[in-house]
Structure formats: C-alpha cells, structure tokens
Amino acid sequence: MKMVLSLVVWAVLWEIAGRLKISTIVPPFSAVIEAASEIAPTEKFGKAAIITLRSFGLGMLLALVIGIPLGIVMARVKGVGRLLGMWVNIFVSAPISALVPILMAVIGIGETTVVVTVFLFAVFVITLDTQVGITHADRSLVEMGRSFGATRSQLYSKILLWSALPEILAGVRLGAIRGVKGVVIGQLLVAIIGVGELFEVYSNNFLMEEFWALVTIVFLFAFAVSEAIAYLERRVEYYAASR
Amino acid sequence: MIVEVKGIGKTYDNGVEALRDVNLAFPQGQLTTLLGPSGCGKTTLLKIIAGLIPRNAGEVLVKGKPVDGPGPERAFVFQDFALLPWADVLRNVAFGLELRGVERKEREETARRYIAEVGLKGFEHRHPNQLSGGMRQRVGLARALTVNADIILMDEPFSSVDEQTRRKFQEDLLDLLRHHQKTVIFVTHSIEEAAYLSDQIALLSPRPGRVSKVINPNVDRMKTPDEIRRDRGYLDTVDEIWGMLRQYV
To answer: B1-73+156-249: CATH homologous superfamily?
Structure first.
C-alpha cells in the first residue's frame, strides 16, 4: 500500500512539473502513459522487447550457471577463494560499462556482445553473495550431515545450498537488477538492436514522450524482476531468521 | 565392550593439547557419562568416537573393529540440535534415512513412529523455529533413534533446555533408551545429571584431558525418578564426584 501511495505521489508531481512546462525534456506523465500505450502494441517495440528479453535471459542464465558454482568453489576451496577473491571484489565495484567498447572490438557488434555485457554486470555479485552464504553456512549442520553418513554431493545438495539460499537469492536479485542495466547499456553502446536502438531513435529525434515511456517500461520490468525474486526471498526468510 | 578407545591423543592446530592417552571401555546397553569441567576435552573425545574429528594418536574400536569416520552403528545428538531450519519435524527426523537413500514412504513411516515415541505426535509438520528448545532436542533424539544405531552419542543434549523440561526429558530419555537397549555415551558438565542417568561415569581432568576416575553409581534403577533423587547411592555418588572435581575448580 505504502509503495503504491509513493508511486502515486511521484506520478502527480511529475504530471504537475510536465504541465508547468519547466523543461521540454519533461512531458506530463499522462502524455508519457499515452505514448507507452501507443508504442507497446507496435511490431517494432515487440521485436525490440523480444531481442532485449532474450539477451537479458541468456546473460542472466550464464551468470547463474557460472556465478553460483564459482562462489561455492571459492568458499569451499581455500586456494581458489584467495586466488579469485580479490578479482571478484574488484569487478563487483568496477564500472563494467567501460568494458563494453572493448567487448565490441573483441566479440563484434551484435547480440552476443549484449549477452556478455549482461553476464558481466550480473555475475560478480552473484558469486560474491554465494561465497558469503556458503562460508557462513551452519557448521553444525554440516557435521550433522557427516555424522549421518552424507556423501559429498549430498552435503552440497541437501545442506550447504539450502543453508546459503538466502544469501544466494539476495545475490541473484542484485545481479538481476544489474543485468537490466547491463542489457540497456550494452544495447545503447552497441546501439543497433533492441530497446537500446529505440532509445537512440527517440532521443535523437527528440521524441520525449516516447523516450520517457520506454524508460518507464524498462523501470517497471526491472522492478517486476526484483520483486519476483524478493518474493522468493521472503518465502525463505521465515527460516533464515531462525538460523 | 561395544566401544573401546585406546591411547587417544588430540592436539589442535593452535597447539592446544585437548586429550592425552585416554583409555576407556563402554559396556553394551549401558549409559556412560563423560563428565568434567569445561575445557577438559569431553566433547572432543565424543566427536573422535563419532568419527567427526580426526585424532592424533590411539584408536577407536566399535564392536572390536577399528573405525576412522562416522558409521551407521553410531548416531549423534547435538548440543545445538542441528536441525534443518527449512524442513519440518517429519523430514528432520527422517533425514538420516533420507541420506541413506531409504524410500520416502518407508522412511516417513519409521519417522512417525519415533516422533510419537519422543512425545511429539501432532507436531510432524511444524518447523524447528516453531518449537521450544526441549521439543527441538526431542526431534534430535528421534532422528538419532530412527536410523536404528546401536550406539547413541549425546553432546550435552540438555544444556539448552530449561530446568523443568530437562527433568521430564531425562526421565523420558532413560525409559526410551532402556526400552531400545541402546548403548549411550553422554557428555555433560552437570554432576546431578551424570549421577541420575549413568551406569558408568568417566571423570576427565582438565587440559590435557585424561580419565582421572571411573565411577559406577550404586543406584537402583527400578525405583521411580523421585525415589532415585532421594536415594542414598545417588546422593553418595554426587558427593564422591564433587569431591573429585572440586580440586579442578
């Protein structure tokens, strides 16, 4: 409820600012919504959305498949943790966008570059949080597992992963939010595909209603992804609190 | 003698010598208590018998055979319960069987039986954070019973349980273990608990831990719990242990 109220307040403020014609860059919110309802059904937007979702999905999938196991290995094998820990920490805070032009030079201009950008934006925080989760997993649960004869793979699949789930999910949520940034920045810098291309078209032709409509759609998407994962987090929270 | 330890020595990586030349024998079907001041290495000894931590010297014999790790004939009850917080009581109790690959229907049936035996019938689908400390430890005990091990290793199982619950729990525990004829190795720092529960008490001296005395309390187990607590043998045992332990305090 609070969230809805806050959104309404901001929408009203935006509307007023737009009506007052403070700047040509800020059209009224109602005009933006109208533009959104106009561009959303178009074929051009549909294609852009599909390309963007595909890049985002592939990049995130890669980030999960590589990031989580890497975090586990870093937590369980001391040498690997020491060797890679510093690098992961650097890359978590590094401005990955600066790397996109280099990626373009290496991989070429196209969807692959965007997928790699999403991956790079998302993977490090997932790895880091997984590592933290596994490192702080309950020692006595691991001991319990061993005392009842758990095999190595059972220790991971039935105890460690579950124990680290709250941290892993937090990492995935942060990773997904960064991934949305990654897909837009990747497309903007590559600038010929997907939503990024539309952004270019709208801002170059000063179509501010459409531009803001697209921004709102991307915001809503990022918000929806993050809320969906936050919902999962809340579902595991009831036990996390009792650890 | 179902379990024997011979010449056990343990020095931790930080240089602390926890145990030196510990020799003990545990008779079948009896409850033996490892008793001593904190830091005497009694939990270390129990975990070495369980095969959870490596020893530096000596050997552990279970049913005459040397062992080097955990085994299905030994089950552990943990001081902090060690329950899976994301699983309900039923799954927690059945977890030992789950790890052994017993089919779901079968292991849950067995688990339900032991849940009833420890007095938790009706709580099968609660999660650990919805249970009191005493109830959580009953889950831990049921889990150890479910795998049908001959030897139950208990590491200060009542230390996180409040006093009133503890007495009732101790009585239930005695009944259960007698009924199932388990061999129990029990770690505690409570003299009364040791005297009340034990067939045999091994007193450990502090760092490095060694067996300073083995006492066989002369307590008539056929009596009711209240009678035992006023029994001459029980009170003498408490006095004798206190006489030994006061020099370490």
So the answer is: P-loop containing nucleotide triphosphate hydrolases (3.40.50.300)
